[in-house]
Amino acid sequence: MAVARPVCSHSCLFLSFSLVSLIFFFFFFSNSLLSDPNLRISRGTVETGINVFVAELPRSLNYGLLDKYWSSPPDSRIPSDPDHPTRRPGKYPENPLIKQYSAEYWIMGDLETPPEKRIGSFAKRVFSKSEADVVFVPFFATLSAEMELGNGKGSFRKRSGNEDYQRQRQVLDFLKNTQAWKRSGGRDHVFVLTDPVAMWHVRHEIALSILLVVDFGGWFRLDSKSFNASTSFPERIEHTQVSVIKDVIVPYTHLLPRLHLSRNQRRHSLLYFKGAKHRHRGGLIREKLWDLLVDEHDIVMEEGFPNATGREQSIRGMRNSDFCLHPAGDTPTSCRLFDAIQSLCIPVIVSDNIELPFEGILDYSEFSVFVSVTDALTPKWLAYHLRSFSERDKESFRSRMAKVQSVFVYDNGRADGIGPIQPDGAVNHIWKKVQQKVPMVKEAVIRERRKPVGTSVPLRCQCI
């Protein structure tokens, strides 16, 4: 009598069991990823976020400064200061000279948001230094500097009687006494220095830290003897200054409202610019460009101040022009670039030494026109070049620009700045760039620790 063979062999049963286990593991792992707010899935890869410890500075160095600002007299530098006599306690100033640098407020607001509401945040706040990738320094350095500048440049440059210097000193004295600073020499500490003069008096003491800056213009020492229009800054950067290797370029806060692509209308001007004609240092090119372009029939060059009237003029001008001119000023960039992006006005960047936020994540050539200083200063060249772009070219620029407008937005819609942020906004992109610096920082810390006592090795940060 023949013995019936099993329908499935042992190997078949084993394969079936393995397949079921694999499927179970896949669904379990996938659900775990999706339920973990500290993980992000982007283009098929898992982003783990960055762990941030917030240094325990007193409130007087951040939100307390806002209280002090709102009790101060009007800013003498700006006509019709929008913050006075109106009072908005707890809110960052609307004064455009200060608001354009407000990154410190929005980054801090994200970290102050309760954990259960921070689902979209790339940065995870931790409360143990041992768990942290970086230490965030919650000092409103820009607000502190601007409040002192409002008293006049003379007092700002002096240390005696300078309240901003006293606050800078208070921050550094506190940090240098912490184990976190002593462990890394400050290399893993993150400072927000969007104003070119923020932390002016103590920069040499934070040279090794991760600095969030809008550009490098305020950090270069210009050699006036070797200055010319095409080489505004030295080729090499001393280690006591800034570097694209360790630091992060962040956006200015845009001052003009966002124009959605669906609401874009026919534009009647070729090129638009509004700002001060006369600037210093690398901004000398602006005056030369002005003289070359001011008489072109479809180019609008307006001189004005960023007060309420100037704001409305800028909105109309940028939304009515195909291209917006972005020449260097006192520094290589300005908030004008980000106003242009929000206005869907194609930026024309004439600034040979410019550094831009989030490069490597974004390709600015997809929605901007880059022009060398030499070409821009050739009579008739720039207008002829811009007129060579077809309507289809300009529509493509604007379409690609519309896709990245949110990347440059800080505002979370909350009056006090504390609340959930836009997942695809500026704050998350900043932390993604900071995370890229972490491996290098950890390597530098370990290398520093193994040096024999008394060894002196020159710091090298001659940057690309």
Automatic annotation (TrEMBL):
Subcellular location per the Swiss-Prot or TrEMBL entry: Golgi apparatus membrane
Molecular function as annotated in GO: glycosyltransferase activity
Predominant place of localization: Golgi
Cellular component terms (Gene Ontology): Golgi membrane
Alphabetically ordered keywords of this record: Glycosyltransferase, Golgi apparatus, Membrane, Signal-anchor, Transferase, Transmembrane, Transmembrane helix
Membrane topology type: Single-pass type II membrane protein
Domain Exostosin GT47: 48-382
Residue span of region Disordered: 74-95
Keyword Transmembrane: yes
Stretches assigned to coiled coil: none
Bilayer-spanning residue ranges: 12-34
Keyword Transport: no
Top-rank taxon: Eukaryota
Pfam family, one: Exostosin_GT47
Similarity-based family: Belongs to the glycosyltransferase 47 family.
Protein name: Exostosin GT47 domain-containing protein
UniProt lineage: Eukaryota, Viridiplantae, Streptophyta, Embryophyta, Tracheophyta
